[in-house]
Amino acid sequence: MARSLRRHASTPQDEVMQSGLKGPQFHMDGEEFHDLLDVENLLESYFMLIDSTHQTLVSLGEYIDDTEDLINIQLDASRNSLIRFEILLSAGTFSIAVFAAVAGALGENLVLPEAITHDLWGFILVNGFVLAICFTIVAIIYSALVKRNLI
């Protein structure tokens, strides 16, 4: 009976052998075995510390990548709004160019109709009409840009 109890009783050395520790079999006394367990525990704690540090660095790298993507998206949005503003300025410049062309044509040394040159109201009427055409051009261009979702 004592022999069967010995077979089932496990010693720390038997646990090490059953856990898969391979290599030359040698006899360790209790102090050496406890030193071995202490070293194994230290290595396991260092491994866990290194693994958690690695996971933290990986998540930090992903966070940096996400931040870069967010910044690029915000820069694209700002760039798009600047392009929209540039389109509006180009449309306004085009409509002012029409007004400048009419002013240039009227400023040449041509014989103009008497209705324009006779009194001040003819001059105001012609310039007001051309200015209304310029605003109409800007409104048409603006509505076309809004319809196409460009601004």
Mean of residue pLDDT values:
80
- Give the CA-based shape: rod-shaped
How many strand units?
Answer: 0
Order of helices and strands: HHHHH
Number of helices: 5
Estimate the strand proportion: under 5%
Structure summarized in a few sentences:
The protein is mostly helical and 151 residues long. The protein has helices spanning 2-8, 12-18, 30-107, 114-117, 120-147. The chain contains 5 helices and no strands.
Main attributes of the structure:
151 residues; mainly alpha; rod-shaped; disordered N terminus
Describe this structure in words.
By secondary structure, the chain is mainly alpha-helical. It is built from five helices and no strands. It has helices spanning 2-8, 12-18, 30-107, 114-117, 120-147. Helix 3 runs antiparallel to helix 5 (120-147). It is rod-shaped, with a radius of gyration of 44 Å. The N and C termini lie far apart (94 Å). Mean pLDDT is 80; it is low at 1-9.
List the helices and strands and how they pair.
Elements: H1 2-8, H2 12-18, H3 30-107, H4 114-117, H5 120-147
